[in-house]
Design goal:
The chain is mainly alpha-helical. It has helices at about 1-25, 30-40, 50-65, 75-85, 90-110, 120-135, 140-150, 150-155, 160-170, 195-220, 220-225, 235-250, 270-295, 305-310, 310-315, 315-325, 330-350. Helix 6 packs parallel to helix 17 and helix 12 runs antiparallel to helix 17 (about 330-350).
Length: about 375
């Protein structure tokens, strides 16, 4: 009962603040959302989340002996934890501060899509889809947040800024190197890139094999042999997700004639550039959502691929918000999104795949 109350209150209050932010354009409401999510995620007991108990033991060991019990922990995340524990020698401090940083990066980035997606729909969709994962996989959740925030540089064709973000995220979780391929999302704008950026992209093509070999070197063969084991199980959820994606992607239309006042200052006053910018962003969101969905469903074959999907699938809430903002079939899309998200929420709670139920606060342990 407590789990239902906590999670429902989290979704309802966050949606309310998102609606207030949309109407007022005041960022104070964004921080209210961040604080709500941080409270639920950061104040959870070590029994909530598949990996939480293990992390708790690691943090306690760092406090008492200075030894990191988890040998595979990336150096960036380890030192972040050590700095936090040096200031506040309590494992709960790491849970809270890591959650705060993660949600701050994600919510502020989602806010930047408000021109093409309804923000007060994006937030509940994000919570339903990914909050339980973040509660469990703190390390990758933080890396995902850094990558997701860094994609803002792709929107501005600032490739170097995005690569810096990937480098930082890789120090938190090695899987972040997979997001390197997103740099080719700017290829549709190839002709608009200056010669330096074109050369830079070509050099990136040469670097990809090195990145792949680096990942393979750090991840043992056991991590990958499951791809070829032939042991997997596909449930009803995969068919519903793919069916929803196919219908919505085919039916979705968006009027590119959006008010340029909320766009980048460099585009104000030029409606043609504004329309092109929005069209490019919409296509990128749609592409990343579909790619993430396809890779994610391979998670039925490999749990490793299931986790890798997140670097693209985090665009799902934005796509849902785009559907609702569409000028065509808006009512139908609203009904479909509500049904789909309700289905995801119920199956997530019932399946308890991330050990999110029962939810307990740390003071209840």
């Amino acid at each position: 009962m407590q789990s239902a109350i906590v999670y429902s209150a989290m979704i309802i209050s966050s949606t309310y603040f998102a609606n207030r932010a949309k109407k007022s354009e005041k960022k104070i409401y964004l921080f209210c959302i961040i604080l709500v999510l941080t409270f639920v995620c950061g104040c959870r007991a070590y029994s909530v989340g598949n990996d939480t108990k293990g992390y708790f033991a690691v943090y306690e060991s760092m406090i008492k002996t200075g030894i990191n019990l988890y040998a595979e922990m990336e150096i960036g995340y380890e030192w972040l934890c050590r700095i936090i524990l040096l200031a506040i020698p309590n494992p709960q401090a790491v849970f809270a501060l890591v959650a705060f940083i993660t949600y701050m990066l994600v919510i502020l980035r989602l806010w930047e899509f408000r021109e093409i997606a309804e923000f007060d729909w994006v937030i509940p969709c994000f919570i339903v889809s990914f909050h339980f994962f973040i509660q469990s996989g703190m390390r990758q959740g933080l890396a995902l947040a850094v990558v997701f925030w860094s994609t803002r540089y792709l929107d501005r064709n600032r490739l170097f800024g995005y690569l810096i973000g990937i480098a930082i995220a890789s120090l938190l979780h090695k899987s972040a190197i997979a997001a390197f391929v997103n740099i080719f999302a700017v290829l549709p704008l190839w002709r608009k890139l200056d010669i330096k950026k074109q050369i830079f992209l070509l050099l990136c093509v040469a670097v990809i094999p090195i990145g792949v070999l680096t990942v393979m070197r750090h991840y043992t063969w056991e991590r990958y042999q499951e791809l070829f084991s032939g042991s997997f199980d596909i449930g009803m959820r995969v068919f519903i997700e793919i069916g929803f994606a196919v219908l919505s992607v085919i039916a979705f239309q968006f009027d590119a004639c959006v008010d340029c006042k909320t766009q980048n200052k460099s585009l104000i006053g030029n409606k043609q550039k504004c329309a092109m910018s929005i069209e490019y962003r919409i296509k990128k969101v749609r592409l990343f959502y579909v790619v993430g969905l396809l890779i994610g469903n391979l998670g039925y074959i490999s749990s490793t691929l299931g986790r890798m999907q997140m670097y693209w699938y985090w665009y799902q809430p934005v796509f849902m918000g785009m559907l609702v903002k569409s000028r065509y079939n808006r009512t139908i899309f609203k009904c479909l999104v509500i049904i789909f998200m309700t289905f995801l929420y119920i199956t997530s709670i019932a399946g308890n795949g991330y050990s999110q139920v029962p939810y307990l606060f740390f003071w209840q342990m």
